[in-house]
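Sample intake — SIR2 family protein
Collected from: Paracoccus aerius
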Amino acid sequence: MSSTTTMSSSGAPAEVFLRHVEQFSYRRNRSDRARALTNVTFFAGAGFSKAWDSKAPIGCELFTLDTKLIRDVADAGSLARMFGLDASDRITPETLRQIVYQLDMYDRFPDVRPRYLDEQNLRMFRGALRAAVLDRYDRATRLNYFDGAAGRFPLVSPSARQRDIMAFFRHLRLGSVPEDPWEGVRTHFITTNYDYVIETILDNLTPDAPRLFFHTYRGFTPVQIAGGPGFAPVHEHWQVQHLLKINGGFEILRRGHGYVLDYGKRDARAIMADLPVVTLASREQDYSDPYFAMVFPKVVRLMRDSTILVIVGYSLPSDDALIRFFLRQFAEEPEDGLGKVIFYLGPGDAEEKRQTIAEVFPAMERMEAPQLVTYDSGFDQFAQECLDLLGRRG
């Protein structure tokens, strides 16, 4: 079921991972309070959401769109003239990349805009595309909207795989000492996903009081959390965890020079009027929104400050240069990788994973750093194997 590529340790991937958690945990010596915190950063691609919910759309599934919402702002003739789309067509991922690229060029170079395109209807068109992507996700598996009455992200009747994933992260947070939860290991998240899966997990780790908004730093400080509780405008280092969305999120809305988080359900018209900050697939990715200028430096800092990197459900294609750039910050120079470990989880051949990571870290094999451990199944299976070793499933 699983395989490893190891350079300085041996054992099944789950064993190696738990051994590192044990090594960096304060609970090995309760009096040892002077040790540094150890960052374990999860880089979550679409496969992370798929591990949580098998119905979650990924890749081509998410970006295959119905043109119905698009036709609310552009008639059939316009779609045919501009993009070669018939009224009955679905937008394929490749067509979407071309459409978004054209819109970006019209924004960047107004002189090349067609006769009847202007600032306003370009914005409406972008809103329709984002509404269509959100609708596609919601139809496949409902977004877990924030429940204002309950004051948290609901988690009702979780599946067996969801219970395992929750127990896995609960172990990382609580270890064997529930009354003393802030151990030496600190769990962080960098994700390419737009959804609320990570928020749901973090908000339900402790049954008594949600901690998400008080103990999670988003790379920016929202001016408001719509319908949500209070939040910490400035975080205390020893308690904080990061959740950095490098492609934006359905909940991130711009307000002047600031941003709000709105995890409530909004219809297509509301989305078109108030666009969420998400970057859609394009031939040339557009990261011009100030949100990205705030978040990207935080991603770089977190990667450099991390000791363990867990890549979950992301294939790292060679044309995804930005993602590879971020990963490279984990060990910018070969010496930076000494003592650091990468766990690369997801279906696929171990040798292919090794070659992919070696492209990001060219000196990895020569320096034997960072250490690489590969696993050839989904994150839900990995969590299950860790819990079996801990005797905590069920």
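Post-analysis note: The CA atoms of residues 120 and 126 lie 10 Å apart.
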